[in-house]
Specification:
- α2 packs across α3 and α4 crosses α8.
- The strands form four sheets. The chain has a four-stranded antiparallel β-sheet, with no helix packed on it. Strands 6-5-7 form a three-stranded antiparallel β-sheet, with no helix packed on it. Strands 1-2 form a two-stranded parallel sheet.
- The model has no long low-confidence stretch (mean pLDDT about 90).
- Among the domains are: about 110 residues, HUPs (Rossmann fold); about 60 residues, Methionyl-trna Synthetase, domain 2, CATH 2.170.220.
- Helix content is about 35%, strand content about 20%.
- The protein starts with a helix and ends in a 5-residue tail after the last helix.
- β5 and β6 form a beta hairpin.
- The chain is of the alpha+beta class.
């Protein structure tokens, strides 16, 4: 509102992030398909924001053809430029639930600091990133059973290849003073330990399909997919979306 009052060219977008295991699980609980569940809660969120008079230019969602097109395009560009790896991942599978478990549905003891309630992607006590199979005493959060590590082929973002360029960029932006102390600390911790390849695919059905032979039965991990929602929501609002997101001169 401040920017609009100043007559600055302003775009205010938001939306619902709808893919992933959390949606699949809640849909099962409510006896709905994932799409039906997302349709219901997208409307609920939109009504709440309208009640609060939050004046988005466009309130969108991630389950759109534009999201699929842009996410797959970014993936193809990464693939063509050599920033992706293919490797076997040990992924926790709960036989009682009959499914691979997303990181947020695994809890256990942190292998680094011993915190007993670490998640399958990160320890909230020491801040270190974790692969779910590294957890000690892992538990399925859905049924409290003990999941089993099972090998499966996945695609990874080759973050070590970007580490040098990222460090140089961070030094420049840190010097400008726009980062919070907490953000600096977390980022320095990641760099201190060295960046590792990060998995961007999952053995799920509800998500953006991976457009590559050998992986077409998988979807993009929401960690990779959801931030692209800002781009696709803008694209659903205006055909000139790239001028908002790819315009470094402004």
């Amino acid at each position: 509102r401040y920017c609009r009052l100043r007559n600055w060219n302003t775009l205010f977008v938001c939306g619902t992030d709808e893919y992933g295991t959390a949606t699949e699980t809640r849909a099962l609980e409510e006896g709905l398909s994932p799409q039906e569940l997302c349709d219901r809660y997208h409307a609920v969120h939109a009504d709440i924001y309208a009640w609060f008079r939050i004046s988005f230019d466009y309130f969108g969602r991630t389950t759109t053809p534009e999201q699929t097109r842009i996410a797959q395009d970014i993936f193809q560009r990464l693939l063509a430029r050599g920033f992706l790896l293919q490797d076997t991942l040990e992924q926790l599978r709960c036989e009682s639930c009959g499914r691979y478990l997303a990181d947020r549905f695994v809890e256990g003891t942190c292998p680094f600091c011993g915190y007993a309630e670490a998640r399958g992607d990160q320890c909230d006590k020491c801040g270190k990133l974790i692969n779910a199979v590294e957890l000690k005493n892992p538990q399925c959060k859905l049924c409290r059973g003990t999941p089993v590590a099972t090998p499966t082929q996945h695609l990874f973002l080759d973050l070590p290849k970007l580490e040098g360029r990222l460090e140089a960029w961070l030094e420049r932006t840190w010097a400008a003073g726009d980062w919070t102390a907490n953000a600096r600390h977390i980022t320095r911790t990641w760099l201190r330990d060295g960046l590792r390849p990060r998995c961007i695919t999952r053995d799920l059905t509800w998500g953006t399909p991976v457009p590559l032979d050998g992986f077409r039965d998988k979807v993009f991990y929401v960690w990779f997919d959801a931030p692209i929602g800002y781009l696709s929501i803008t694209a659903n609002y205006t055909e000139h979306w790239e001028r908002w997101w790819k315009n470094p001169q402004q």
